[in-house]
Here is the input.
Amino acid sequence: MTYNDWFEAHAAKHRVIMDKLSHLRDDEVIKYFRFENMVIHESDFCPLYAENKKCHDVAKLNCYLCACPHFRFNDEGIDKVKDKTRYSLCSIDSKDGARYENDNAIHQNCAGCTVPHDEKFIAKVFDSDWSSIMKKSPPKR
Ligand code: SF4
Here is the structure.
């Protein structure tokens, strides 16, 4: 699955849920996307829900964003770093971020960073249209 395939599939899933929640205030929507509630009410939103498992080992995990508005990707490659193609990066170079590297590719590794799962951050960037929050992530068209 390419970054873009995942991105578009996730936007569609998110939109289906948001259409259902149009009667809620923004703070109520954010609360609805708490891991514990999503596992029960939106079981197909994340493959980890089937195991009641969190993507990050944190007490309070919110699934509203899932991806991160600071994440940049391009399936054709963003740029070259020495002789490797970089396909994704963190635009704020988070100290909790890292890289997956092999002989010819570099990908952003967000496994250690919980920025997009924090409710204060979500409230700061909140928009009921997920794609609008993530608009800087995919390559410009
Ligand atoms: S490292 Fe953190 S801030 Fe950077 S893109 Fe990944 S989740 Fe977002």
Observations:
- The chain has a mean pLDDT of 95.
- The chain has five helices and six strands.
